[in-house]
Amino acid sequence: MQSTLETSEGLERKLHISVPTDDVESLFQQKLKEAAKQVRLKGFRPGKVPLREVSRRFGESIRAEISSELIQSTYSEAITQEDVSPAGMPRIEDVTMESGKDLSFTAVFEVFPEITLADFGAISVEKPTATVEDPDLEEVIEKLQEQRTSYNEVERSAVDGDQVNVDFTGRVDGEVFAGGEGTGVDIVIGSGRMLPDFEAGLVGGSAGDEKDIDVSFPEDYQNKELAGQQAVFTISFNKVSESVTPEIDEEFMSQFGVEDADLEKFRDEIRGNMQRELDSNIKNKIKTQVMDGLLASNEINVPQALIDGEVNRMRSEMAQQFGGQNSIDESALPPALFEPQAKRRVSLGLIMNAIVDQNSLQADDDRVRSYLEEMAAGYDDPEQMVSYYYRNEEQLSNIRNMVLEEQVMDLILETAQSTEVVQSYQEAMAPPPPPELPDEADDSPSDSAADEEKQPDGSTEKPDAGT
Q1: Distance between CA 452 and CA 337 in Å, rounded?
Q2: pLDDT digits (tens, 9 = 90+) for 405-449
Q3: How far apart are CA 368 and CA 395, in angstroms?
Q4: Is the pTM of this model over 0.70?
Q5: pLDDT tens for residues 340-366?
Q6: Distance between CA atoms of 37 and 58, rounded to whole angstroms?
Q7: In b/e form, how buried is each residue of 243-278, taking b as 16+ CB within 10 angstroms?
Q8: Cα separations in angstroms, 386 against 240, 254, 360, 377, 405
């Protein structure tokens, strides 16, 4: 085998490979003899078919098989010989495979970029500092109570905050429209589940009443046939129920693992959860700034093959997310939708790997153990959970990677320009702005689920992936 490496534009490389005809013919004769032992042809005894007849009938397919095997084996040998690291699978071009001639082909591929890391001192980070104050704690406890609100039926007219059970039929120009009917639908007035005009019209209704409500569909309504239209909904009230906020009693506290009705212990439990969420949120905000700084200070040429691979992975994830139990054809999701986010992820992966390699970093075993113990603290038997991870190499590898990422963050923050910013709990818990994406950032999908659009019947429908 002979190979010649050609450097093309950017990261592309062309590996020209040839295999001497003697080697090809030797392998061909070997395959031919193997086939002759197995082939069954009318007029010939098993294993006695002449090689000439086997070659006449099956020579072309045998040469195709040899070509595939030799291309695979010689390509692997050649990249080792040329000391190159392909980023992705090669594209095979210009294959020549004829009797009496050398086998030759060209493998086209990209290589990983050489990364010269910029000084971490060029990265600027704002470090939020915040604490959980008593008013923050009270607000969260009130929200926990609201989330567990129940409803008791009452014999009076509905007011804001009540839950009504209704049947309704909506009409535009006197005609019932698709999605405009509902039976036995529970609606909390003021929840924003339905259109504003619809919910406002429910106020004052009592069980047994029937009334018509005028509803204006907004100009930007998702259903274009209803956008800007005026509708009349006929509402039949089945029952009215008022909200009942649960007391902070033994039953309520037991839902949070506090069994002895100890109010202070309950407050400490909620405060501890809030503090963990706060710490995690602050850490993520710092991490996002560091990642943005790494991208801004380290411009690298990213192999398109790696971007394409990440795009395919993201398309598959979104198809599953939107499809649920139903299958969605990934080809319906345009690759351009994912490319900016995919490029960011691949770029950061390459830079992070360079930091790990150039600083000879390894996951610290003590930090891995601490990470696992903290993660398992909420389980009934934390040590059993820790032991599970140590027995599962794949799971443990994921934890090691997380710890290694934290060590990279620590290394960068030792040199990066950092400023502490005092914030309230609410400010520190607010989600960070979306990361800056290269090129067509506005076309990239969000990491969160798609926004849900309100329908006339109170149901929700996810918009198309491309919107």
Answers
A1: 19
A2: 999 999 999 999 999 999 999 999 998 777 666 554 443 333 333
A3: 12
A4: yes
A5: 999 999 999 999 999 999 999 999 999
A6: 13
A7: eeeeebeeebbeeeebeeeeeeebbeebbeebeeeb
A8: 51, 26, 27, 10, 20
